[in-house]
């Protein structure tokens, strides 16, 4: 049975905000009612007290991979609100809808990069995974969409939140770009990509001009002569031009890379001197990476629960770790648990201007505040591997066979350099 978002929001929302008010002992009942009344139409509030005890015969989940936590049975996409602060992110008129889709092809997997000059978002298809159309004999695909076209399509669709389907344009890239899985920037106006490699073709860090003919410069393709395992994600540390990226064995686990030669680690590259060093290790499978806006805190997701052809194991990490970044060496220190994901694993990550952390997870995009408290979800009912802010108040979400576009209140955290 599908519950009405508005009815659930009013009913459960009053309880949630009453709880918040009673905790602070400051907000009057009129403010509680006003807050609930200002919920976006697609928002559903779930009070954590409502599911803290399910009872001896309760509806317990057996799988964090195949079973979603959707106690209101609301039809995706919608906003699942666990904390009042999530409304500040959404704003009173927040919306989310699909803007591009192809159910037969996982064209929208990873590496989302927003280029403000053209208002386009670039991204890569699934490399070696389900519906990715890529394997040891076939490269994956880098594509783009125009957010100008998205805006025009939404305007033409009129009122409501119905999906639209804009043009997806494939890029023609050189052979050096193999199995792109991570991206950020722009970096001096270029797309900054990390590539997992394919077969004997090496993983690499590369710059790609977003404009045709997409001139490409490889910055790095080895660790002192050894190929990396399969590079996964990358970020520029704020306030610097240093590049930080993760290397993990997913290429081997998805049958398109040879046996690994290195541990799963996080690396730092100085693009000027090409000095390369390891800044963090000890992961089961390090994956996504992100920085706080001041560059003093790093976040790395460990997705050990997902082991490719070895299967899923819920007792392995589905965890985001936070680190201090040493001001001199830039090594990651003081490792601690930031958050553990309730559905799937945390893949690509971004932060907004207020240092709330967003991660692509098994049910969509989940959002935590700087203390690691889950605020809410962009609930898609399907996996998201990554996302990117397209400037302030616009969030573009990769969801394998679809791209979702959220118009919200949150402001973006700068990713480009300079």
What report would you give on this structure?
This protein has 418 residues and is mostly beta strands. It folds into two domains: 1-50, no CATH class; 90-407, TolB, C-terminal domain (Neuraminidase). Helix content is 12%, strand content 33%. The chain has helices at 5-24, 29-37, 86-90, 147-157, 250-253; strands spanning 43-45, 78-81, 95-101, 110-115, 120-124, 142-146, 169-170, 180-187, 190-195, 204-208, 216-220, 231-236, 243-247, 265-269, 276-280, 286-291, 297-302, 319-325, 332-340, 349-351, 357-361, 364-368, 374-379, 386-389, 394-398, 402-407. The strands form six sheets. Strands 1-2-23-22-21-20 form a six-stranded mixed sheet. A four-stranded antiparallel sheet has the order 3-26-25-24, covered by helices on one side. Mean pLDDT is 93; it is low at 1-33.
């Amino acid at each position: 049975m599908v519950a009405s978002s508005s009815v659930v929001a009013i009913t459960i929302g009053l309880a949630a905000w009453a709880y918040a008010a009673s905790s602070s002992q400051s907000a009057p009942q009129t403010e509680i009612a006003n807050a609930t009344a200002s919920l976006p139409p697609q928002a559903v509030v779930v009070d954590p007290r409502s599911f803290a005890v399910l009872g001896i015969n309760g509806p317990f989940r057996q799988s964090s991979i195949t079973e979603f936590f959707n106690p209101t049975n609301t039809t995706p996409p919608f906003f699942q609100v666990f904390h009042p602060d999530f409304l500040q992110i959404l704003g009173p008129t927040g919306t989310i809808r699909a803007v591009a889709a192809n159910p037969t092809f996982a064209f929208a997997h990873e590496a989302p990069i927003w280029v403000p000059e053209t208002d386009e978002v670039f991204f890569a298809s699934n490399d070696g995974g389900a519906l990715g159309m890529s394997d040891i004999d076939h490269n994956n695909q880098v594509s783009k969409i125009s957010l100008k076209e998205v805006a025009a399509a939404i305007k033409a669709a009129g009122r409501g939140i119905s999906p639209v389907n804009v043009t997806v344009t494939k890029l023609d890239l050189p052979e050096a770009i193999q199995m792109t899985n991570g991206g950020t920037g722009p970096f001096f106006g270029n797309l900054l990509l990390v590539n997992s490699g394919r077969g004997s073709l090496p993983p690499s860090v590369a710059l790609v001009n977003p404009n045709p003919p997409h001139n490409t410069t490889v910055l790095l393709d080895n660790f002192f002569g050894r190929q990396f395992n399969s590079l996964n994600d990358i970020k520029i540390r704020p306030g610097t031009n240093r590049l930080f990226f993760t290397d993990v064995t997913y290429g081997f686990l998805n049958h398109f890379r040879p046996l690994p030669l290195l541990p799963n680690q996080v690396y730092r590259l100085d693009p000027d001197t090409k000095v390369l060093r390891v800044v963090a290790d000890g992961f089961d499978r390090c994956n996504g990476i992100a920085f706080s806006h001041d560059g003093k805190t790093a976040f790395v997701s460990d997705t050990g629960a997902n082991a490719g052809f070895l299967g899923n194991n819920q007792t392995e990490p589905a965890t985001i770790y936070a680190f201090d970044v040493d001001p001199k060496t830039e090594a990651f220190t003081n490792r601690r648990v930031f958050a553990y994901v309730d559905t799937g694993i945390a893949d690509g990550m971004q932060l907004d201007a207020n240092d709330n952390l967003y991660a692509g997870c098994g049910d969509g995009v989940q959002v935590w505040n700087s203390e690691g408290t889950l605020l809410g979800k962009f609930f898609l009912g399907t996996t998201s591997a990554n996302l990117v802010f397209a400037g302030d108040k616009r969030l573009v979400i990769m969801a394998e066979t679809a791209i979702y576009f959220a118009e919200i209140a949150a402001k973006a955290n700068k990713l480009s350099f300079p």
